[in-house]
Every structure is written in structure tokens, then in C-alpha cells.
Amino acid sequence: MLKGMDGDLLPIGQFARLGRLSVKQLRRYDELGLLVPAYVDEQTGYRYYRPAQAREALSIGLLRSLDVPLAVIGHVLSGATGVLAGVRDDLEAELARRRRTIRALERVMAEGLPSAQIRLVTEPARRVAIVRESAAGPQDIGRATSAAVARLTSSASGLLPVQLIGLFPIDMGEPVPIGVALVTGEPVSGAELDVLPGGVFACATHIGPYDQISLTAHALLSWCAEHGHPAHGPIREVYVSDPATTAPEQFVTHLMIPLEEQS
């Protein structure tokens, strides 16, 4: 123990045991300005801490055990209020995603690896209004798609009937550009008018929640590979059911992949 101007100072190893953190963690928190030593020896670089800093160290350990990011911990320690609400929301979103994953896994356990009846369909070119969004990654596609649907349907509330088509890339990088198209020849506020090319498509029908569409997409892509058809994007999801009046287990969605040069 070192006698400092303001009382006793503890070397980093002893303080690490007191604060239930590792020496490596303390060095990292010092670099981030999250938990700065009370004194650093200029000649040796050794770090020393006051015993009173143990409460702060223990608080950091507690918050990290609750999956609170370090950046947010800094705000908490500085006395900011309400910052943990965002962490809770993120954890709830992750929990919901995990539950969706479990449901998809249970379907695979019950039915085996995905398979679907594939049919070839010829589609005409369609005039559409498209809203585009960017998903941070594959796990964010659901949120981005819902946001695009909400933007599009709110602007096209007077256009009936509503036929929506999701547009998704074959390759899932980060970010993931997605689009939702409304079949219409009329201008829609906030959307770009475009034409979806026609042509021959491999088509599979998915019945069930939207968050399990990837299972049917797997079967459709596997069929294309097995039959020597290079997969061209975007993958189309034609939403048949009205979520307002249909149970998720009964949602009908047609998935389509173009097989030839579209016209």
C-alpha cells in the first residue's frame, strides 16, 4: 500500500481483487477513461487506486454482468438518467429474436430440413412504387421490412387493393438493402416509381410466420442449385395474406427467384 497525498493507495493487483475485476480490465477501463487510477508512477507506469474507487469498480462489474455496454456504463457512472432504458429495449429485441429462432428450430426438428414444392411461373412486368430501407444485417431484415411496409402503406392508404412485394438480395452482407414494392401505376408519396421485370421464376409457397420465411427460401435456393439454375436476385416475396385478419401461422407468401434474363 502506497501513502498518497489524499490517503492510502492500492497497487493495481490488490485493487483488482477488491473490485472483482482483472488487471487487464482495469487497464482497459483506464484507456477508455471509465475508471482512471488515482495515481500513475511516471517512471514505472504502475497504476494505483484509492479504496473508495472500489464501489465504482464493482458497479462496472455489475453493469457488465447485465450486458450493459461500456459506453452506456460511462453515462450511468456520470449520473445520467434514463440511459438504461435503451439497453433494456435492446435486450428485449434480442430475446424476441432468440424466441423466433427457437420457433424456427422447432419447426426444423418437427419437419426436418426445409423442403418445398417448386413450380415454374411466368410473370409479366409490373409497374410498382418502391420504398427502400437498409438493414444493419440479416437479423435486422424484419425490422427494416416492417418499416418499409409502414411507410408505403401509410402513403398509399387510398389505393385498393394493396399488393405488396418484398425485394431481397441473394447475398446477405452488411448492410442489407431491401425494398418493398406496391403494385400500382400511380405515384405514391415517398416512393419511387419503377417496373419489376417479368420472366420465368422458380416459385415456392411459404405458409407460416414471416420470420420463418428463410426456411422456404433455403428450399427454393437449394432447388435452383440442384437444377443448375444460377440464383439471380432479388428474391421476391409476394405477400398474399392480410396480417390484420390472418393468424401468423396461416400467412401465405409466394417466394420467387428469376431463372432467366428478365424482360
UniProtKB/TrEMBL annotation:
Signal peptide: none annotated. Keywords: DNA-binding. It holds the Pfam family MerR. GO terms for molecular function: DNA binding; DNA-binding transcription factor activity. PROSITE patterns: HTH_MERR_2. Residues 9-79 form the HTH merR-type domain. InterPro entries: AraC_E-bd (IPR010499), DNA-bd_dom_put_sf (IPR009061), GyrI-like (IPR029442), MerR-type_HTH_dom (IPR000551), MerR_fam (IPR047057), Reg_factor_effector_dom_sf (IPR011256). It comes from the Bacteria. CDD domains: HTH_BmrR (cd01107). This is MerR family transcriptional regulator. It comes from Streptosporangium minutum.
